[in-house]
């Protein structure tokens, strides 16, 4: 009887974890550049004395859905969308290099170029600072040019270049901040930042939308809710069977 209880209990627990992943995807269905998180179940034998007659369910998040989102034109000179594969390098809250596809860029009061609050890095790994009040254009290779207010068109000058990288999908991992980081090495140390890739191209005046399908996410949420309900019914049935067996034993 305990096999049924613990199997259903582990399944219910992992279903709740999977529901959290789906809910996070659903919440970011309109977040530019967001990559949906994947979730999978697997059976794990319970090691111990005797035969391997027990198993529990484990939920894992093996990676992210790397399929591209839809590209939407905005007309803003600071908006960029990665054309094909590739990532935009930014600085995370801890000062480390991280990667994102969110190209809705903004400048703060000091001229630092930011993506969702994270400083955008230039080709040499330093935060990009743009002239305040200048008219900015971004070329397909990430080169940033600026024209000061009142200057003649011939005075336009290059002020920086976006750091664009294109690592293999297995070489990066999503962090708790929804940014992607170099995957840790086998010894547990942090991975090294990737070198800039000259082949990555961007489209100026556009942003990439999330690749999460809201309808599919909603169906997954309903499916998880029904699975959790079924597992709770199994636990309830096992408890009722145990109580009935105790009543029969008490009569002997």
UniProtKB/TrEMBL annotation:
All residue ranges annotated as the Flagellar hook protein FlgE/F/G-like D1 domain in the record: 81-146
Subcellular localization: Bacterial flagellum basal body
InterPro entries for this protein: Flag_bb_rod_N (IPR001444), Flagellar_basal_body_rod_CS (IPR019776), Flagellar_FlgE/F/G (IPR020013), Flg_bb/hook_C_dom (IPR010930), FlgE/F/G-like (IPR037925), FlgF (IPR012836), LlgE_F_G-like_D1 (IPR053967)
Keyword NAD set for record: no
Transmembrane helix found in the keyword field: no
Occurrences of domain Flagellar basal body rod protein N-terminal (ranges): 5-35
UniProt-listed Pfam families: Flg_bb_rod (PF00460), Flg_bbr_C (PF06429), LlgE_F_G_D1 (PF22692)
Main location, first listed in the record: other
SUPFAM superfamilies in UniProt: Flagellar hook protein flgE (SSF117143)
Domain Flagellar basal-body/hook protein C-terminal: 204-248
Assigned keywords, A-Z: Bacterial flagellum, Cell projection, Cilium, Flagellum
Subunit description: The basal body constitutes a major portion of the flagellar organelle and consists of five rings (E,L,P,S, and M) mounted on a central rod. The rod consists of about 26 subunits of FlgG in the distal portion, and FlgB, FlgC and FlgF are thought to build up the proximal portion of the rod with about 6 subunits each.
Family stated for the protein in its record: Belongs to the flagella basal body rod proteins family.
Protein name: Flagellar basal-body rod protein FlgF
Species of provenance: Salinisphaera dokdonensis CL-ES53
Gene name for this UniProt entry: flgF
